[in-house]
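Sequence of ABC transporter permease (Prosthecochloris marina).
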Amino acid sequence: MDTDALYTWFMGLGAEYGVNPFIFGAIYIGAIPFFTLSLAWLVRNLKQKKPAVLPALLTGFFFISAYLYLIIAGRNVPLWVYLFIILLVGLGAWSTIKKISKQISQTGESR
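Predicted 3D structure, token representation.
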């Protein structure tokens, strides 16, 4: 597939679902540093036994922000996209919880 065909296909998806693919991509890429910072804040608060609700909410928000755009701004989004989003969020949450648990347990071992 050449780059012109790929670009046409990519932009066609945006037109079909009523979203701007560049905005989706910008939100997706732009949220990465905020996700990373809020995740570090969450881990730090958990290690220090401080309240973790706000960093946990922010971590979750930044993780799903691009998909929220798709759900809110999109139209005619097929069911499989919603299922895929649910799967991605579930796998991401599971992975994040595993990482947090591992970091907390490693901190406990070093004390």
